[in-house]
Known about the structure:
Largest sheet: 3 strands, antiparallel
Number of domains: 2
Helix content: 55-70%
Protein name: DUF4194 domain-containing protein
Strand content: 5-15%
Number of helices: 11
Amino acid sequence: MDNALSILSARLIAHRFIPRNDPLARRALVDEDFRRSLDHRLAEVGLVLLENPYAEYLAVALADDMNAFVFGDGDTWLSNNMGLPRDAIALLVVLWARIILPKRERQIARAEKEREGQSDMFGAEKPLAQGEDVSVGIPEDALYADFREKLGGKTRMNTNLGQLARLGFIERRNKVILEGPLLDLMLDYASLAPRVIEGALGEVLKRRAADAAPE
């Protein structure tokens, strides 16, 4: 086990994320003793494992109590520890709301439907649905049209999109923005979703959906 722990820990730290279907990643998700040892090993260097039942990747992040020691006493780490400017953070939230939020709602609905149809006594312990409802890409031109006036203009947005892509939050292919490995892991659905749905961004997204609906 010790060698496997070393390999998995090193890969997570070096690559920041690994696919969920990787053999060692799968072992960390199903083997309680292995997962406990992995959590302990990461904690020894101030890290925590990031995973959720719907995400296609596992990742590592800095433990909350390490922020001040690593990033000092400045204000940057209070909002994020990747050095992102405010408009980039705002853009990241918009992308999360446009890509992850609808995908997660479909996944949850599918999981609930499957559980309602299960008749075996261990049905509730089966893994949640994942990977079947893929996220939908966003055309860059559509994003610019909707948000460039609010997020610093097209040039500034393009710069921030490049930074988010380098960090692994998104992928850009043929002028379409797609979900990156970290988009579904680094932002907490449980705390962010209600704020988006009930807040101003939720109203903006609802209006856009209404405008795009066929007559």
